[in-house]
Design goal:
The chain is of the alpha/beta class and 396 residues long. An eight-stranded mixed beta sheet has the order 3-4-2-1-7-8-9-10, sandwiched between helices.
């Protein structure tokens, strides 16, 4: 089976959660022939085809970028040329160039739309983009979402809910294995974990971790303000990731007089796992349903760490459950976020309780094996039957 995936960016240029999903599809279907068609991360680069971790990646030269969208005529040419013999074409939404390719009659036996999030940031473009997106959804044989919440809270998806199927994201086996070993040692130890000694900080200091791109919908400004307003002062905040707001957030931290804040920037997976081992809990302060799921929640939960997330109308609060694996607060509320961080910072027993539940939840629902089974079943169905025959009606 030949599988082609379309999006605007891919590793190692940058990619975030969507690139992880693209990579996981290749890992979950090892017997398939995979290729990815994306744009170059820099418009000065020419088109090139290369192998990245065993996947053929066709990187197309872009002309310019508008509203976070790389515009590329070469992308349309290569999609037309290299999807002719594809059994399945997966369009990762949102990327208007992929929608334009569908409008122009993109070949391919079956089309799947992987709906990651809406386009709330560019609401002013909605009147122009919505018809194009609706056409793609109408043409799609199947629409994948990470949770039912993404369908229930999307006016664009609801008319196509019978095509929608839920494929929750997963945590990699490397995270699960290392995290499980770390959590076991953490809970069995009566004293302070060795990781804290490596951190070079006080044994009583609580480490709060954020992982993600420093962009508008992540709510890092809310996080910094909430950290400044905490009653518990024996805490350190570590932020992993980079983005257009990095300098602005550093200035905000300085203006708030926050000296126990570290901006680590982009780091390797090894460093990220090390920081997950060292932290006491993760905070995901996102303020928009542009945050549709957040795989980073699973990564923290795999290490037995509780999560503070926000009650977004998306899949975010379905991953880490309020009062079970962490605390859910109202998005955009500095006071509520500070209160939640104070609660976990001062209560080690509660952190361990939520952490145990978090690891159990990941092991039961979000493993690579689970995802692989779900993908294999759906791909067999979509290739074995007609356009709508394989779709089981679900109540969203």
């Amino acid at each position: 089976m030949k599988v082609t995936q379309l999006f605007k960016i891919y590793w190692p240029d940058n990619g975030g959660g969507i690139a992880k999903v693209m990579e996981s599809i290749a890992e979950c279907l090892p017997g398939c022939e995979h290729q990815v068609i994306v744009c170059q991360g820099n418009r000065k680069r020419k088109s090139v085809a290369e192998s990245y971790r065993g996947v053929l990646v066709r990187r197309c030269r872009q002309l310019f970028t508008v509203a976070s969208t790389p515009v590329s005529i070469d992308f349309l040419r290569q999609v037309k040329k290299y999807t002719k013999d594809a059994d399945v074409v997966i369009c990762h939404f949102p990327y208007p160039m992929a929608d334009l390719a569908v409008l122009l009659g993109m070949p391919g036996r079956r089309i799947i739309v992987w709906w990651h999030c809406g386009f709330e940031k560019y609401a002013w473009l909605a009147p122009f983009y919505r018809p194009l997106a609706r056409h793609t959804l109408k043409k799609a044989d199947m629409i994948l979402v990470s949770s039912e919440g993404n369908v229930k809270n999307s006016g664009l998806l609801l008319p196509f809910r019978e095509k929608c199927r839920v494929i929750p994201f997963c945590v990699s086996d490397s995270y699960l294995q290392r995290g499980k070993a770390h959590a076991a040692g953490l809970w069995e130890s009566a004293g302070v974990p060795k990781e804290r000694e490596m951190c070079g900080r006080s044994q009583k200091e609580v480490c709060i971790l954020f992982i993600g791109r420093l962009v508008w919908y992540k709510g890092c400004d809310i996080l910094l303000k909430a950290f400044a307003g905490m009653k518990q002062k024996n805490c350190r905040l570590v932020l992993i990731g980079s983005g257009v707001l990095e300098m602005e957030l550093k200035r905000l931290a300085a203006s708030l007089g926050l000296w126990k804040v570290e901006f680590l920037g982009m780091v390797t997976e090894e460093v990220k796992m090390r920081q997950l081992e060292r932290c006491d809990f993760l905070v995901l302060p996102s303020v928009s349903k542009a945050e549709a799921f957040a795989v980073v929640q699973l990564e923290a939960m795999a290490f037995g760490k509780p999560v503070i997330n926000t009650a977004l109308p998306s899949g975010v609060p379905d991953v880490s459950v309020d009062g079970v694996t962490g605390i859910t607060v109202q998005p955009g509320s500095v006071r509520a976020l500070a209160r939640a961080m104070d609660t976990l910072a001062r209560d080690q027993k509660l952190r361990r309780k939520y952490g145990r539940n978090a690891l159990q939840r990941v092991q039961a629902e979000y493993t690579q094996r689970k995802m692989q089974q779900r993908y294999q079943m759906l791909f067999q169905q979509i290739l074995s039957h007609g356009k709508a025959a394989y779709i089981e009606k679900e109540s969203f």
